Amino acid sequence: MARRTGLIDVAVEALRARISSGEWPVGSRIPPEPALVELLGVGRNTVREAVQSLVHAGLLERRQGSGTYVLSASEMAVSMGRQIADARQRDVVEVRRALEMEAARLAARRRTSTDVAELLAHRDARAEAYRRNDLDAMVSTDLTLHRAVVRTAANPVLASMYENLLDAIGENIRFNFVTDVHAHDQHDGLVDAIVSGDARRAAEETSLYLSALLDD
After folding, report:
1. 3-state DSSP call for residue 22?
2. Stated pTM of the model
3. Helix, strand or coil for residue 176?
4. What is the pLDDT along the chain (216 residues), one digit of tens a residue?
5. Helix, strand, or coil here: 62?
6. Which residues pair with 16 in a beta bridge?
7. CB-based contact 124:131 (threshold 8 Å)
8. 31: DSSP letter
9. Burial environment of residue 113 by CB neighbours within 10 A (0 to 12, 13 to 18, 19 or more)
10. Are 149 and 104 in contact (CB under 8 A)?
11. CA gap 49, 149 in Å, rounded
């Protein structure tokens, strides 16, 4: 029994690694059971129990007649998502302001030429989404830009915290687009400040647009 439990644990970790690394991204369907048996080198029962373990953890979701899909890349994200599912939008914005101001400050200090090119591309994609008045694209490009700023900050702890709040942040961004008037160039100042290496202005630009949502 101990050996079987050990095999299940090994299989769970192998599956989890492919999810957390992005090899199997959120929303994708994982390989069917026969392929997993071959991939992991274990029996069908072990694969089934390993998959079920990750279903219980909230990382995977079985869809009848369709397969098993990646629901989340992190148990922490699942746990935090459950805890803040009923959070007020104001509470989420306050947390965003705390995280994103520091991320912007660090990004301005640590940006590389590769980071700069990525931020400018995301800024332009965001502007194009506004030009098309495509709400879904506006939300996704806005979130992508913020994630790029956090990555540019080069602080893995900050990045992990932010990534584990993505569902709440994405919903907050959509809420803000629907209930407030946003200018297409609202984040241009932030990107410019990071590109130019002005840490103080980068933090101020972040505070400006988030504080406006709070009327602070």
Report:
1. coil
2. 0.68
3. helix
4. 445 568 899 999 999 999 988 899 878 999 999 999 999 999 999 999 999 999 888 888 898 888 999 887 777 666 666 666 566 788 889 999 999 999 999 999 999 999 999 999 999 999 999 899 899 999 999 999 999 999 999 998 898 888 888 888 888 899 888 887 555 567 999 999 999 999 999 999 999 988 888 875
5. strand
6. none
7. no
8. P
9. exposed
10. yes
11. 39
CA torsion angle 120 199 182 116 (round to 10): 10
Structure tokens at 25: 């991204």
The token pair that represents 1 in the structure block: 């029994």
Q: Which two tokens stand for residue 213?
A: 């949502």
Residue 104 one-letter amino acid: A
Q: Is 141 exposed, middle or buried (0-12, 13-18, 19+ CB in 10 A)?
A: buried
pLDDT at 73: 74
Q: Rounded to the nearest 10 degrees, how much is the dihedral formed by the CA atoms of 202, 204, 210, 212?
A: -140
Q: Backbone phi, then psi, for 29, in 5-degree steps?
A: -90, 130
Question: At how many degrees (to 10) do helices 135-152 and 113-132 cross?
Answer: 170
Q: What is the CA radius of gyration of the chain?
A: 20
Q: Whole-angstrom Cα distance, residue 94 to residue 23?
A: 33
Burial of 107 by CB count in 10 Å (0-12 exposed, 13-18 middle, 19+ buried)?
Answer: buried
* CA end-to-end span of the chain: 60
